[in-house]
Amino acid sequence: MARRFPVDDPERRRWQDPERILTLAGIGEGMVFVDVGCGEGYFALPAARRVGPRGRVCAVDISPESIGRLRSRAVEEGLGNITPRTGRAEDTVFCEGCADIVFFGIDLHDFGDPVAVLRNAERMVAPGGRVADLDWKDEPMDLGPPPGIRFSAVKAGRLMESAGLRILSVQEAGPYHYLILAGKRQAAQR
After folding, report:
1. Can you tell me the distance from the alpha carbon of 157 to that of 66, in angstroms, rounded to the nearest whole number?
2. What's the pTM value of the predicted model, to 2 decimals?
3. Which of these, 80, 89, 130, 190, could form a disulfide with 117 (CB 3.0-4.6 Å)?
4. The CATH number of the domain where 109 resides is what?
5. Which domain holds residue 177?
6. Is 188 domain-assigned?
7. How far is CA 138 from the centre of its chain?
């Protein structure tokens, strides 16, 4: 079983720095950021700080306990720009074409139907926006899920393309992760 790290674990921040990853994803002030499979808010909380009071963070997770902890932390920090929701990602669409970034933080492999979840992401992302998939490299390591369930960057990219997305970039995101950025497919030129 994979080792779980609390939201504030300093060891995790050494090898998975949420601020650096959010910078790579392109987050900025005033944006709408959707965190799919947000857990307790490892990425949602720093995203809410980054987008500021004019921005918004929508966060969904299947665990009511995790959403409860995210809500509590948001209240403690005075972050009124987070909309947390308990639910299945396969059934969740916060908005149509309003998100600047739809983010998957090391969880795409966890969904029963990743293509359905990515189709929802494609619906939520605004023209010019990005879908970001941060995931575990498909190689042996002591951290993360078993290698047999991880998605290689190539496989994740193919899933994104099958959901109607176009790959914009694939990059290293620390010693254990890659980050894929994708956007909506452009309409064919006439």
Report:
1. 28
2. 0.92
3. 89
4. 3.40.50.150
5. 31-183
6. no
7. 18
